[in-house]
Amino acid sequence: MKASTYQSVSATPGASPPRQHPISRAGLLSKLFFHWATPLLKLGNERQLHPQDIWPLESENQCSVVGRAFEPAFNKSRSIVWTMMSAFGWQWAGIGLMQVGTVFCGLYAPVVLRQIVSSMESSSFDLTQSLQLIASLVVVRIVSSLLSAHATMQTELIGFKVTSALQHLLYQKTLQLDASSRREKSSGEISNLFSNDIPTIVFFSTIFNQLWILPIQMTLTLVLLYDVIGWATFVGAVVIVLTLGLNQVVSLGIQKNFGVMMKQRDVRMKAVNEVFGAIQIIKLNAWEEKFAEKLAAMRAVELSALWRIFAFMTVSVILLYLGPTLITLASFAAHTMLQHEALLPSKLFTAVSLFTLLKYPFSSLSFIISTTMRALVSIRRFKEFLDLSEKKTDNVLTPLTIDANRLKTFAAQDVAVAMTDATIGWDAAKPLFDKINLTVQR
User: Fold this and answer.
1) What is the pLDDT of residues 382-392, one digit of tens each?
2) Domain count, the chain
3) Do 19 and 161 sit in the same domain of this protein?
4) What is the DSSP letter of 426?
5) Among 226, 242, 243, which residue's Cα sits nearest to residue 335?
6) By residue range, what is the domain housing residue 47?
7) pLDDT > 70: what percent of the chain?
């Protein structure tokens, strides 16, 4: 096997220069066609990759950098959505423009198809013009592929940054919770935020642009359909509106039951942690079956909500596959039976091509809406956790936070611990000690 020194680590400490991400020194064409990733792909084809083979993160993608930019913005707005918009808004806008360009490139194919088929239907077939149209279609397809690849890469980077930012906020908040908040939120509930809510919000951040791009794509497709089959397009549009209305009802049902399921999951995880914390007492008193029944009852409520979610999703899938077929049948039926016009090959093939393009936004819209509904539930749960009360760090001074003069005074008196007018207790409403003044010397 061929030996490789790609991104190798020198045996002598300090002998090798700091490693850099290859995109930082890549040229324009290398960035355009992702040539900067070729060495790693070649190495992976030769042997198994090792951790030292992987490039270091770019500075703007590191958690410390993302967290420093995200946390102050959140503390100012107290809104996760607005903070993400302020932190990543321009990147989302760039991704959206690339995705819109991909939509326009996709709509170019039916236009070329109609021109070529119409030319073949006419008495004079212009071969040169047809070849030019085909060549332009190839170029547009290449541009579409590049735009799609770069949009996908930037979307993944956005998801990576949102993950880092939310985990940073969650870790920081967990360390700053006061005693009452720690009693209110168990470790199981915090674990649910990590394992369920953050991935839901991150996935929403990767499909955020589709909320406004898909309606644009559907509108442009319907405009092109109107140019092909006339007002019969509106019959298909009516079917679309009816189907989207049903999808909206289904999405609201998914959102409601998703909230119920997540709330019940928190209750169950809290109970599980309490059971494991007192497992010795439970075993000693032979209470296993009793607590198992309680946990099973909680799980049954959670599964009931989950079953309703899948029932709504089943209806959504039925509408997903049935909708495009109904739209096509309704439009063609109106064109032939009501307009009394023949379906010429140029109209038929172009309309079928446009209906095929219409299938993706139509099928994706219901999924994106339901995902958005779940993300809103997760954002609300995440926000409730971030709004919990925190420890008042200014009430406790340490050698690192106290001013120099007071530190010298305490040091001169050999004071280890000092309390002035302190209120101490587990519950703020029922303190154990009030207005305590205490000095402990070394």
Assistant:
1) 898 888 888 77
2) 3
3) no
4) S
5) 226
6) 1-56
7) 95
The domain boundary, picked from 353, 369, 386, lies at 386
For residues 265-272, give the mean pLDDT: 85
69 and 196 in one domain? yes
Mean pLDDT of 252-275: 85
Please choose, from the candidates 31, 280, 32, the residue with its C-alpha nearest in 3D space to the C-alpha of residue 143. Answer: 32
Whether residues 141 and 181 fall in one domain: yes
Helices (H) and strands (E) in the chain, counts: 14, 2
Same domain as 87, residue 29: no
Angle (nearest 5°) at CA 273 between 269 and 274: 115
Nearest Cα neighbor of 87 from 104, 68, 111, 107 is 68
pLDDT of residue 204: 92
pLDDT at 18: 58
Give the Å distances, CA to CA, from 408 to 344, 398, 404, 413, 419. 95, 13, 6, 9, 17
H/E segment holding residue 434 = strand 433-441
Q: Which of 364, 386, 408 is the last residue of a domain?
A: 386
Would you call 289 helix, strand, or coil by DSSP?
helix
Instruction: Specify whether the backbone of 296 is left (phi greater than 0), alpha (psi in -120 to 50) or beta.
Output: alpha
Report the CATH number that the domain containing residue 367 is assigned in CATH: 1.20.1560.10
On the question of pLDDT at 327 being above 90, the answer is no
CB 48 within 8 A of CB 54: no
Output the pLDDT for position 17.
53
**81 and 140 part of one domain:** yes
For the record, the structure tokens of 38 come out as: 């070729």
Give the Å distances, CA to CA, from 146 to 99, 142, 165, 256.
Answer: 11, 6, 29, 39
Taking only the tens place, the pLDDT of each residue in 404-418 is 788 888 888 888 888
Residues 181 and 158 in one domain: yes
Q: How many residues does the chain have?
A: 442
Q: Where are the beta strands (DSSP E) in 307-432?
A: 415-424
pLDDT at 344 over 80: no
CA distance 93 to 217: 17
**Residue corresponding to tokens 């399921």:** 261
Q: Is the same domain home to 369 and 411?
A: no
Is residue 281 over pLDDT 80?
yes
Q: Mean pLDDT across the stretch 166-191?
A: 83
Domain match, 84 and 178 both: yes
What average pLDDT does the chain have? 84
